[in-house]
Fold:
Amino acid sequence: DFIRFMNRHKQLILVKENSQINITGLPLPNDLIEEDYQDIIKMIHEDRIKITSAADISLSDMIEYYTLWVHQIKTPIAAMDLLLQSEENALNNELSIELFKIEQYVEFVLQYLRLESMNSDLLLKTLDLDSIIKQSIRKYAKLFVNKKLKLNYTDLDCQILTDEKWFLFVIEQLLSNALKYTMEGSISIYLDPILENTLVIEDTGIGIEEQDLPRVFERGYTGYNGRADKKSTGLGLYLCKQILNRLSHTITITSTVGKGTKVYINFSTVDILKKPDDISPCNKFIIYD
Structure:
């Protein structure tokens, strides 16, 4: 009896461990009651499969719709931008900046929706860090000029292993945050002189409350500044954290209220195609899965 009991127990353990796949490994029922229980379990399992399938189809349809919507909305945005550039004046410059913000929000929606399928969209290769940063700076040049903020940046001469599109999105988002919360002073971009393989984006903005720092990467958490601003979604830093995790990078933040914020991005990864002697000083060898 004990052997039969243990055999059934082991079968049920195997089913439990693989319940996300199927329940075909259930042992044969001993009596009518066990058969009824198994019928109920099978019905619940089939319902779960239907619900999961419907949710997957719904998500796929939503991503497809918003992808199409983003591409369609870019046409009138580009047309408005050309119209505003046709005549140079203070009002058109202000409208152009607001239109630029709209374009950024549109792009943000698309990246947010693609986050779940990000792994299939990755293209990792060794890139010039300066090239990525300069793309972001050129994109936000108007905002620097409009807010009269100084940019402290010199060439970093560093190669990193990452995905250009996703890493660029992170840098742009962090630069956007720095510009948003910095009213005067400067924004600095440099390699940390002490921490190895670490990029720093520093601003002289309003800073982040100490009690908010542990939660800034939580989804939907806006903190004191977000509640005061009334426009923050609490998704920007969450998205940056998720993207960098999947790129095998890390992000940390330190801040002092009234003095500014420092964002640290550590981009240590591994390039399995190179030998340690060939690797740039910016990269460190870690097993990359």
Remarks:
- The helical segments are 2-17, 32-85, 90-114, 129-139, 141-147, 164-180, 223-229, 236-246.
